[in-house]
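Narrative summary of target 7.
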Amino acid sequence: MALALSLGKRGEGAVWPNPAVGCVIVQGTRIVGRGWTKPGGRPHAETEALRQAGRAAKGATAYVTLEPCSHTGKTPPCSQALIDAQIARVVIACTDSDPRVSGQGIAMLEAAGIQVEIGLWEDQARADHLGFFSKVDQGRPMVTLKLASSFDGRIATATGDSQWITAAPARRLVHAMRARHDAVMVGGGTARKDDPSLTVRDLGISRQPARIVISKHLDLPLGGKLAQTASQIPLLLCHAPSADPQLVKAWQGIGATLLPCAISAGQLDPHDVLQNLGNHGLTRIFCEGGGGLAASLLNAGLVDRLIGFTAGVAIGSDGIPAIGPLGISRLASAPRFKLHSAQTIGPDVLHIWDRA
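Modeled conformation, tokenized:
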């Protein structure tokens, strides 16, 4: 199962709206098939592993990180494929909460006389499939908020100078993290100030995550890097219904996808933004700021994982903070996270925190 989980991770960021599943088929003491969900969500992991195993799948054990599907979509159900291959035993890390599958895949296997075991490495599997479960259960993708800051929590000096607070190893790792998410998201202020491309670079990866910009008025540079690549790499713009129709038309004309979102307290409602992104099929979002967007997501309780890169440099209170005002008067009401891991990355410290 540990191998199946590691295989499943290979699909992260490339298989949405499907889950990134891994599957290993074992005949006796020999691995005869391995598979993981392929880009675009198909073929599924079980299908790939069965194809590799061939006739050796008969009487074998399949280890799969998520309950095999039981419904016919663009591909036949994986439960039926396991039955047809005459698999003798299926070990499942965790059940699927999708109502089209939940319990039905297991029932199909058991009805065919296949021995089914559930719960091996379940906690790890549920963590790996968090984005998929979040979309199914809550209608929204999971959100990872990444902050790269000075020791005193600043992302730039008072004049806006920010390149570079963290060193090259940390920045390279950020690109790898982008690649494992469906989309990279920033606020409109960051898009205007930094003119980012939000792509994965220098890792030999051709498939790019979608890019998301949260901009109430759509007042983004039509000559910037995002606009220049909108027809080649998916660009989603979340905006207010009242945004200038001419700007909406202009962005649509260069290939962007426009998502009008509800307004709450004068700003884009973060809950509605994420619901719209979930409706679009996204399961895993990597948010890179700025401070206003980070504060909005934290205040709304929508951040599932915090990733911090902290550099050994002090900028001072006149610098730009990593997180905007939260309006917190009592410490007890501040959003809290539990430490997942910490390590050094070059001269910087990486710390990862999960929602408490």
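Residues 1-129 form a domain with the Cytidine Deaminase; domain 2 fold (CATH 3.40.140.10).
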